[in-house]
Amino acid sequence: MPLSMTKIAYRSGSIDNLRAWVEAGEEAHMRTRYRPTRHAEMIGGSLYWILDHAIVARSEILGFAERPDGHWTIRLAPKLILVQPKHKRAHQGWRYLTERQAPRDLEEGEEPGDAIPGRLAGRLTKLGLI
């Protein structure tokens, strides 16, 4: 199975803004300074987006392309797929995510429901309450 990664959806502010950016064209392009070491394993995997300390959505990784300035473009499918929210601390850069660690996709018409916000879920987990 392809390898995936997590990334903070900075400057998005909301799922709606993230969806508008990802689904604006034929592909979404995300710039990054370095190509992931395991990039070949990631084609066909997903980039899982973190908003407010929770993984909330994913986009399929189509490939990687080097830019003229030496940075890299991560090519993403123009579809944002909502997932069952899962607590994830903020981090810089990306982190690899195996299929076993990834949250499940929400079914068509399924709502995230009364999911606990990421920060609160993290605190309750530390207290052993969830």
From TrEMBL:
A Pfam family per the record? DUF1489
Q: Which InterPro entries match?
A: UCP032025
Name assigned to this protein: DUF1489 family protein
Source species, please? Tsuneonella dongtanensis
